[in-house]
Write a structure and sequence with these properties.
The protein is mainly alpha-helical. The chain has 22 helices and no strands. α1 runs parallel beside α6. The chain starts with 27 loop residues before the first helix and ends with a helix. The N terminus and C terminus are likely disordered.
Length: 512
């Protein structure tokens, strides 16, 4: 028996692009736009990784930080608070001022935050810098995927948006290298945090000379500028097709473009509610399926395997980060071949198995630590449990990174109509950051309540719910144009006939 992973109502939508054979590297101009926009992802990943190493030295410089776990938690979590606000406001900035200006604003804010952290005379100014950095990260997390998606041909859109996720994981890997490089340098933590301003300045300088998103330009009646950008992306035959699609969308959104879309407008439209629930759900499940908790516990898992050396632990942390980046590369190669939905389902299936392995490893460790089990479990407790946990960790990264790493960001960059893309992208990114904060603030409390093995068992249960959610709610968008994706939501909301007649009626009203 086989399971059909395609979605009802989407068959036939791939016909328009099925005869095109493109690769992520086929258009150097688009690839350049992607890499430049992806520097925002690099900042995202670097900051999330560097603070763990910097905090060790911050505690040495500030006694009040060393004496207060609350201040330590605030230093770490204030960037998340800033990211929530940055993502929420970033969607509006994207729609009103454009993707390019939103990127430039994010770079400026991030650079200011980095310099504040670098020069902070006390932990409270450092916390302020963390907040500014978070604002920049949050805005960039909304902008980069949308900018890339709107410049990319539909056949390779998934792989290009996933490149932004590769930059995130690459930033995390870079942060470990920087932590290692500055361990013997005076002012260790200031260098670690301050050097993050460099890629932000580089992105700003390059972005000044790059174009605005062609779709945003067209929707703002700057058609000649939009066409000039599209001419660098498509050949003459494909260019005409893309312009026709943009013209149709512009006509469709004629009334809505007269006023700015508000956050509440998302919930007034049935098809927009369905799209937002799918996108926001994916973002929430990306966090609640445990990526940050598994990464947080990776040193403990390594210690369980018998590796106690700090240098060896750092090396293994680098290996884990490298695996995460390598898995994202696999995702880039697969996302436009397997499809977003199928990749997410396969990813979650592996995540569930690996979380169960991790849970079992910690349960066995607990049994080994109890006096009445030491004799019966014998030598397995000395090394077998640890290696069992390492296998679970490796499997988790191997399955999560190619699927649930890039898929939520890719899907959210392409499932919303043009008029709503910035607002909905900002709202769904905010859900991601809020979920991240919830996990960070509750994980240790849950561990104290039910134990580490029980906690990973709970996360495995959430992953099962996520799998069912993707199976039922998330459509396949591989190779579809934005207009074809929009049609899916209309069909789900009103039925295929109603969606078709509704589009025709709006066209007639506009012509009249």
């Amino acid at each position: 028996m086989t399971i059909d992973l395609s979605m009802p109502g989407s068959s036939g939508l791939l016909d328009a692009s099925s005869n095109r054979d493109l690769s992520v590297l086929s258009n150097k101009y688009v690839l350049g736009l992607t890499v430049t926009a992806g520097i925002g992802g690099l900042l995202f990943g670097y900051d999330t990784g560097v603070i763990s190493g910097a905090l060790l030295y911050i505690r040495d410089d500030f006694k009040v930080v060393n004496d207060s776990s609350f201040i330590q938690e605030t230093i770490v979590s204030m960037a998340l608070v800033g990211a929530i606000i940055g993502a929420a406001s970033g969607g509006w900035i994207n729609d009103v001022y454009g993707r390019k200006k939103a990127t430039l604003i994010a770079d400026v804010v991030f650079t200011i935050g980095s310099l504040i952290m670098c020069a902070a005379p006390d932990p409270y100014i450092l916390i302020l810098g963390r907040f500014f950095v978070g604002l920049g990260i949050g805005a960039a997390s909304v902008t980069a995927p949308v900018y890339i998606a709107e410049a990319a041909p539909s056949e390779i859109r998934g792989g290009l948006v996933a490149t932004n996720v590769l930059m995130i994981t690459g930033g995390q890997f870079l942060s470990y290298l920087v932590n290692l490089a500055f361990t013997e340098v005076p002012g260790t933590w200031r260098w670690m945090l301050g050097v993050s301003a460099v890629p932000a300045v580089v992105q700003f300088c390059i972005m000044v000379f790059l174009p605005e998103s062609p779709r945003w330009l067209y929707m703002k009646d700057r058609k000649s500028e939009a066409i000039a950008v599209l001419e660098k992306i498509y050949d003459s035959d494909r260019l005409e097709e893309e312009i026709e699609q943009l013209a149709a969308v512009a006509m469709h959104d004629f009334q809505s473009r007269s006023t700015t879309v508000s956050y509440m407008d998302v919930f007034k439209s049935k098809e927009m509610r369905l799209a937002f629930y799918a996108g926001a759900g994916l973002q929430a499940f990306q966090q609640f399926t445990g990526i940050n908790t598994v990464m947080y516990y990776s040193p403990t898992i390594v210690q369980m395997a018998g590796f106690a050396s700090n240098q060896l632990a750092l090396l293994l942390s680098l290996i884990v980060a490298a695996m995460n980046a390598a898995g994202t590369i696999v995702g880039i190669l697969l996302i436009d071949r397997c499809g977003r939905r199928r990749l997410a389902l396969l990813s979650l299936s592996g995540v569930i198995v690996s979380l169960l392995i991790l849970s079992m490893a910690f349960f066995l460790q607990s049994s080994c630590n109890s006096n009445n089990q030491i004799v019966t479990l014998g030598s397995f407790c000395s090394s077998g449990v640890g290696w069992f946990a390492v296998v679970g960790l490796a499997l988790y990264i191997a399955f999560f990174a190619p699927g649930m790493g890039p898929v939520p960001w890719t899907v959210n960059s392409e499932i919303y109509p043009e008029a709503y893309r910035g607002v909905c992208g900002g709202m769904s990114a905010t859900v991601n950051w809020v979920s991240n904060l919830i996990v960070a603030q509750t994980f240790l409390s849950i561990v104290e309540l039910v134990g580490t093995g029980g906690t990973f068992m709970i996360i495995a249960g959430i992953a099962v719910v996520a799998l069912v959610f993707v199976l039922i709610v998330v459509p396949e968008t591989k190779g579809l144009t934005f207009e074809q994706v929009e049609r899916i939501w209309k069909e789900r909301a009103w039925g295929s006939e109603a969606a078709s007649s509704g589009s025709t009626q709006k066209l007639l009203e506009h012509v009249a």
